[in-house]
Here is the input.
Amino acid sequence: MDLLKKKSFLNSIIILFILLSGCSKSTDMATNNSENEENNEEETEETFNYTSEAAYNLNIVYFIPKGGSKRKDAHRRLSEILIQGQDFYKQHMMRYGFGEKTFHMLKDAEKNRVKIIFIDGKYSASNYPYEGGGGKMIEEIEAYFSTHPTEKTSEHVLVLSPVSDPTNSDAPYYGLGKWCFATDYDDMDIKHLGGSSTLSTRGTTYIGGLLHELGHGLNLPHNKEKVSDISNTNKGTALMGAGNYTYGNTPTFLTEASCAILNNNQIFNTNNDHFYTGASARIETIQATYINGNLNITGAINSDTPVNYVGFYNDPADDNADYDAVTWATPTHGNDFSISMPINELHKKGDTEYVLRLRLNHTSGDITNVSYAYKFKNDIPIIEFGDQDYLDRSNWTINSYSSQEDGGGENNTGFATHLLDDNPETYWHSCWSNCSTNYPHHIIIDTGETISAKGFSFLQRSNLSRAIKDIEILVSTDNQNWNSLGSFALKEINSIHHINLDNTTSFRYFKIVANSAFDGQQFASLAEIKCF
Here is the structure.
C-alpha cells in the first residue's frame, strides 16, 4: 500500500473511532443524567419540547452579568430543583383541600427539563449588587421581554444569578413584588439535600432559600409555624419563616394562610382569566373577644371582587420583622368570616404588643390588607380593636386647625372636614404643596353640645402615609380653658383603633395635638376621629 493510501486508511480508522466514541458518550448521558456535570457538551434549547396545560407559567430567567458564565450543568440542576419544588407546593395545597394545584412551568416532562431563559447582562456583576441590583436586572429583563413578547408567560418572574461561592456573594437574593431573586452555584443540586455534610447544609440553605424567595415572588409574606407545628412530623418549620434552613433536611411546610393566597395565584390556575385587576375591599364590621384561651374574631367584608379566604397574621410588634407572625386562615361564608385562635399556639405572650394583619384573598389574586392592634398583658390578650358604640357626629364641626392642604391634595382630599365625613379614603393633611409646616400640628373639633365619652377612636390613612404617632388629647367646655387627658401613641395600622380613657369624661370641644409621625417627617395626616 503506498504512503498516500496508508494515510487515507488511517484517517478513515480515526474518524470511525471518533464517531463510535461519540455514540458511546451520548448513550451514557441518556442513561445516567446524574453524570451530566462531567459532560463538557452544552445542551441547547432546541433539543427540548416545552409544554404546559396552563395559560400562565412561571418565567425563569438566568441572568448572566457581563464577563460571567452560567454554572456547570445549570439547566439539569435547576430543572430538578424546580420540579421538586413544584411537588412540594402541590403536597401542601392538597393538605388544606385546595386540590392538586402548584405553580405551572413550561416543561419537557420526558426529559425532566424546564424552560429557562438565559439573558446576558450589559454590565459586570459588581453593577448588580444586593442593594439595588434587582431593580437593574428587572430593567434589562423587561427590555428583553419587550422585544420578545411571547417569552413572558405571566406576571411572575424568578431570576437566578451565577455565583462561584453563595456564602460570599453580593448578588440580589429577595422578593421584589412579583419578581424574586436567588443565586446558582456548581454544587446546588437536589442530590445534596439531607445529611450533615457541608454540601448538604449549603444545599438546604440555598435550595430552600430559592423556594422561599420564589414564595415571595408568588405573593407570599413571611410567617411562622404554630407552637404545635414544630413537633408535627408532617409540618415542622414554615417555608416562609425559617424554612430555608430546614428544607430537605427536617420537616418543612407551607401554612394554610400561604396556601390560601396561592389558591388564587395567576400561575396556580389553568384558566386564562384576568388576574390582579386591582380589586379592593373593606371590613364592614368586626368583633373580637377573648374566651377560654381563644382569641375569637368575626366580621363582614364589603368587596368589589369576591373574597374567598381570609388569612390572620399575628405579628409581635417587638421587632421590625414579620418572620415571627403566626397564622390562621378560614374560608368566607358569603361576605362573613369567623376564626378562633388558641393563644397557646403563639410563641410570644407576656407583655407583648401585636399587630394582627388580615389578608383578604380575592378570587382575582389581589390581596387587601387590613391591620389591627392588640397586646398581651401578663399573658392575657387585651383587645384594642372591634366595633364600638360610636357617638353621633352629625352636629360636629371643625372649629380650627393649625393648617390643612387647601389645594385639595391627591384626589381632592386633605381638608380638615374630611376627618368627619365617614369616608376612610379621604383624610386631613397638614399643608404641604404651598407651604411648609412642622410638628406640632393640631385640630379643634366642636361637638355642638356637651357629650360624655369613654374613649376616642382614630383611623390612619389606608396606605399609612404620614401616619401620626404621638398625640395629646385636650378637652374643654368653652374653647378657652383646656384640660389635658394625657399623651398617647397611635398605631401604625390602617384600621380604626381605640384609646380608652381612665374615666368617662364630659366636654363640648376637644383638641388633638399631633407631636410626631412614624416616618419622622414634618407632615401629618389622619382619616377619621370618633368618640365612644
